[in-house]
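User:
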Amino acid sequence: MIQNIMEIDSLKKYYGKEDNQTKALDGISFQIMPGEFLGIMGSSGSGKSTLLNCIATVIKPTSGRILLQNTEVTNLKGKNLSEYRGNRIGYLFQNFELLDNLTGRENIMLPLSLHKISEKESNERLLQLASYLEINDVLDKFPAQMSGGQKQRIAAARALILNPEIVLADEPTGALDSKNAKLLMNKLSGLNQQEGSTILMVTHDSSAASYCNRILFIQDGNIFHELRRDIPEESRQEFYERILKVMAQLGGGSANVL
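Assistant: Predicted structure:
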C-alpha cells in the first residue's frame, strides 16, 4: 500500500469570538499521495488560501493535524520548523516574491546558501532547472529586467532547487497573461510527470486546474466535491469542462482555456 506524503486531519481555523466566529476551515481532512498534482479550488473566502497558509506554517490552525511523512507540522519549533519551511516544502507565490537587488541566479541559489549545499551540487541542480524552465537567458538579469512569466519561472526554480518533498503553489498563474500561464503550467505539469514532483496548488482558475490529476473543491471550509482524472485518455479539455460544471455550482469559473 502506498503511503501518503501528507495528511490533513480534521483541520480547523476559526477567527473571532464564539458569538461572531468565522470558520475559515471547519474540520477538513484529506491526503496527498507521492507524485500527485493536487488542486484546491473554491470561490473567494472558501478557505483555500487559509489551508495553504496553515500547511506553510504562516498561520497556526485552531485544531487538527498536518502530517508530512508522519512528522506533525503544527508542533514544529526552532531548527525543525526552519528545516520544514526552508527544505521540506517549496513555496511558489502568486506575486513571485523575488528580491529586487539579486539576479535571477542569486534568487534561485539563496535557499541553497542558507542550507549549506555544496557549490558543485548547487550548480548542477541550477543548470538542470534552468534548462528545463527555459530561464538560462535571464539568470544574470534582475527582476526589473524580466517579464512576468520569466519572474514566475525563476520563482519556480527557487521553490524547487532544494528538491522539496512537496511544492505549495499559491495561485501561480494569477499575475500572468494567458501565454505565460500556459507555459508555466506546462512546466509544472512536466515536473510532476517526469520528475515525480508532488505539487499542491491553490487556484481559482479552471484552466490551470485542468493540469492537475485530482481536485478538491472547498466551500465554507469543507470539501464540497472531489474530481479525479481517472481515465488516462481523458483530455485536458474534457477535464476542464468537468471542472467548469463543479465551479458553476460553487458560483465561479473561468472563461479562458489555456
